Amino acid sequence: MTDAPLPRFPRLVDRVLGRLPTLPLDLALRRFITSLADRHPSLFSRLGDQAEKRFLIDPVDVSFGFLLRPDPAMPRLEAIKRDADGTIDAQWDARIAGPLAALVGMVHGALDGDALFFSRDIVIEGDTEAVLGLRNAVDDAELDLAGEVAAMTGPAAGFVAEVIRRAAPVAERLTGVALVRSGGFAP
Fold first, then answer.
1. Domains plus CATH for the chain?
2. Whole-model pTM?
3. Angle at 28 between CA 72 and CA 124, to 5 degrees
């Protein structure tokens, strides 16, 4: 990790996204989390009792956050818009907050979560044991979010993967978010 500040999600793009209803995103997130659990069954089951916790994934430079309930029997992931004062009104057991680039970079293994925590680029609140369990499960799964998105499209996965592969470098330059795991991805 360098000493350079983490990129912030483009404000103009966020303003447009923030005006959209969350229903389409929630439907996509429901499909995504179901596909993720099917493709990586140990991801949530290894959390044990921590799988019953509610995790607020809070990208501070985006108009909404994500509430994750990693119950292996029925995982849930939903988008929650910020209130006018910038807070997210949701009950959670653990909150992980930071710029979107940091949060996605941790998932992809491009950024070190410990370094981000100690540099205060990310903030952890609530049940830190649950956060550590989730982090270890995600690290072990070596997820590639772009690959998971492609895989959830079923028969179109090859086509979607190719579109993502071509668009990712441009989107990464524009947003500062590492959209694929280094070394590429496979749906």
1. 11-142 (3.30.1050.10)
2. 0.87
3. 60
